[in-house]
C-alpha cells in the first residue's frame, strides 16, 4: 500500500514527469516531491544549494526522526521533577495538595534524589516516541499532500496537519507505552521500584505483557489530541506570526529570529495541548497506579473535578516542553542544513482559478 509513496521518497524515475531546460527542450526529471509552498517543487534527484539533503527523501525523514529523539528525549527528562509532582497530585490529591506542597513532601520523604525518580523510562520512552512522532509526521504529511494534490494541500492544510500528526502519534504511543507504564509505577507507587531495571521485570511478573499496554488506549486518548493540537496549532501559529506580527518575511529574518518565532509558536501550542489532553493524562496516571483497573473505572473514581487535578503544573510543564521541543527540532534542522520550507502560500494555479471566478 505504501510502495508508491516510498518509490517517490526514494526518488524513483517518473516516466510522465518532464521539465523544460533553458533551451526549452523537455527532458525527463526524476521523482518530484511537492511541498506545501506555492509553486515550489523540490527535485529529489538534486539537493538545493545550501541543503544537506533533499526534501522528502529517506535521508530527510531519518534526520527528522533523529531531531525528534533529541527534542522529546531531552525535554521530557529535564522536567521529570515537575512531572513526578504532577502525577502524584493526580493520584493522591489528599497528600499532595499543590505543586509547592508536592515538592515539599517529596523532598522530605525521598530527598533531592527522589525528584529524579523515573528519569530512565522517561528518557528512553519519550526518545522512542519522538522518533515516531516527528519522523512519521513528516512522512505522513508528504504522503497525504501527494495524495490530495497541491491545491487541496493548501486549502485544507489544517486538516492535513491534523491527520498527519494523528497517524504519527498512533505509532508513537505504541513505542512509548511500556516505558510510560514503568515511569508512572516508579513515581506513584511507593515501594514498587526505584529504577527501570527493577520496574520492568516486576510489571511483567505481576501483570504480563498487558501491564505494559493496559494504558495504551487512554494514552492514545491523551496523546493523539495533544499531538494533533501540537502540530496543527504550531503550524498555523507560525503562519499567523509571520503574517501579522513579524515585521518582515521569514526569508529576511536571521536564523536566530526564526528560532524565536518557533519558540513563541511552540509555547502557544503547548498551552492548548495541555488543556485538551489533561483529563486523559490524569486517567493514565491513575490507571498505571492501580493494578487491574480499567480506564472507565479510573475515570469514575476520579470524578469530573479529579480529572482536572494538576492542570496548572501541566500547563507550565507542557507549554515549556512544547516550546523547547519545537526550538530544539528546528535548531537541529538549521544545524544539519535541512530543507525548511517557509509558511505555505496559495499555489499560482489556485490564484488563477480564484481570479477567474
UniProtKB/TrEMBL annotation:
<feature type="transmembrane region" description="Helical">
    <location>
        <begin position="311"/>
        <end position="332"/>
    </location>
</feature>
<keyword id="KW-0496">Mitochondrion</keyword>
<dbReference type="InterPro" id="IPR023395">
    <property type="entry name" value="MCP_dom_sf"/>
</dbReference>
<feature type="repeat" description="Solcar">
    <location>
        <begin position="59"/>
        <end position="143"/>
    </location>
</feature>
<keyword id="KW-0677">Repeat</keyword>
<dbReference type="InterPro" id="IPR018108">
    <property type="entry name" value="MCP_transmembrane"/>
</dbReference>
<feature type="transmembrane region" description="Helical">
    <location>
        <begin position="259"/>
        <end position="280"/>
    </location>
</feature>
<dbReference type="GO" id="GO:1990547">
    <property type="term" value="P:mitochondrial phosphate ion transmembrane transport"/>
</dbReference>
<dbReference type="GO" id="GO:0005315">
    <property type="term" value="F:phosphate transmembrane transporter activity"/>
</dbReference>
<feature type="repeat" description="Solcar">
    <location>
        <begin position="156"/>
        <end position="240"/>
    </location>
</feature>
<keyword id="KW-0812">Transmembrane</keyword>
<comment type="similarity">
    <text>Belongs to the mitochondrial carrier (TC 2.A.29) family.</text>
</comment>
<keyword id="KW-0999">Mitochondrion inner membrane</keyword>
<protein>
    <recommendedName>
        <fullName>Phosphate carrier protein, mitochondrial</fullName>
    </recommendedName>
</protein>
<keyword id="KW-0809">Transit peptide</keyword>
<keyword id="KW-1133">Transmembrane helix</keyword>
<comment type="function">
    <text>Transport of phosphate groups from the cytosol to the mitochondrial matrix.</text>
</comment>
<dbReference type="InterPro" id="IPR044677">
    <property type="entry name" value="SLC25A3/Pic2/Mir1-like"/>
</dbReference>
<keyword id="KW-0472">Membrane</keyword>
<keyword id="KW-0813">Transport</keyword>
<feature type="repeat" description="Solcar">
    <location>
        <begin position="257"/>
        <end position="335"/>
    </location>
</feature>
<dbReference type="GO" id="GO:0005743">
    <property type="term" value="C:mitochondrial inner membrane"/>
</dbReference>
<dbReference type="Pfam" id="PF00153">
    <property type="entry name" value="Mito_carr"/>
</dbReference>
Amino acid at each position: 500500500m505504501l510502495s508508491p509513496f516510498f518509490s517517490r521518497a526514494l526518488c524513483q524515475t517518473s516516466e510522465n514527469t518532464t521539465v523544460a531546460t533553458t533551451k526549452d527542450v523537455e527532458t525527463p526529471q526524476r521523482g518530484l516531491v511537492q511541498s506545501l509552498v506555492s509553486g515550489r517543487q523540490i527535485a529529489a534527484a538534486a539537493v538545493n544549494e545550501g541543503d544537506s539533503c533533499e526534501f522528502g527523501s529517506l535521508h530527510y525523514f531519518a534526520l527528522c526522526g533523529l531531531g525528534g529523539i533529541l527534542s522529546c528525549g531531552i525535554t521530557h527528562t529535564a522536567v521529570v521533577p515537575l512531572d513526578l509532582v504532577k502525577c502524584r497530585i493526580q493520584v493522591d490529591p489528599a497528600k499532595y495538595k499543590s505543586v509547592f506542597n508536592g515538592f515539599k513532601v517529596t523532598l522530605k520523604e525521598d530527598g533531592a534524589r527522589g525528584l529524579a525518580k523515573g528519569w530512565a523510562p522517561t528518557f528512553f520512552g519519550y526518545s522512542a516516541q519522538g522518533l515516531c512522532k516527528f519522523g512519521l509526521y513528516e512522512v505522513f504529511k508528504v504522503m497525504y499532500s501527494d495524495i490530495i494534490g497541491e491545491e487541496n494541500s493548501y486549502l485544507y492544510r489544517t486538516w492535513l496537519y491534523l491527520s498527519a500528526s494523528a497517524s504519527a502519534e498512533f505509532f508513537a504511543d505504541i513505542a512509548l507505552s511500556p516505558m510510560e507504564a514503568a515511569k508512572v509505577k516508579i513515581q506513584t507507587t511507593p515501594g514498587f521500584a526505584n529504577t527501570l531495571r527493577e520496574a520492568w521485570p516486576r510489571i511483567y511478573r505481576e501483570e504480563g505483557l498487558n501491564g505494559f499496554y493496559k494504558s495504551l488506549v487512554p494514552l492514545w486518548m491523551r496523546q493523539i489530541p495533544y499531538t494533533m493540537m501540537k502540530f496543527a496549532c504550531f503550524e498555523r501559529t507560525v503562519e499567523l506570526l509571520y503574517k501579522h506580527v513579524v515585521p518582515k518575511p521569514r526569508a529576511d529574518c536571521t536564523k536566530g529570529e526564526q528560532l524565536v518565532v518557533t519558540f513563541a509558536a511552540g509555547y502557544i501550542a503547548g498551552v492548548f495541548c495541555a488543556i485538551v489532553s489533561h483529563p486523559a493524562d490524569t486517567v493514565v496516571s491513575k490507571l498505571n497506579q492501580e493494578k487491574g483497573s480499567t480506564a472507565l473505572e479510573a475515570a469514575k473514581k476520579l470524578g469530573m473535578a479529579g480529572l482536572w487535578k494538576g492542570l496548572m503544573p501541566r500547563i507550565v510543564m507542557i507549554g515549556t516542553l512544547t516550546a523547547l521541543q519545537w526550538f530544539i527540532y528546528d535548531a537541529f534542522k538549521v544545524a544539519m542544513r535541512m530543507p525548511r520550507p517557509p509558511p505555505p502560500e496559495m499555489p499560482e494555479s489556485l490564484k488563477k482559478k480564484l481570479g477567474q471566478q
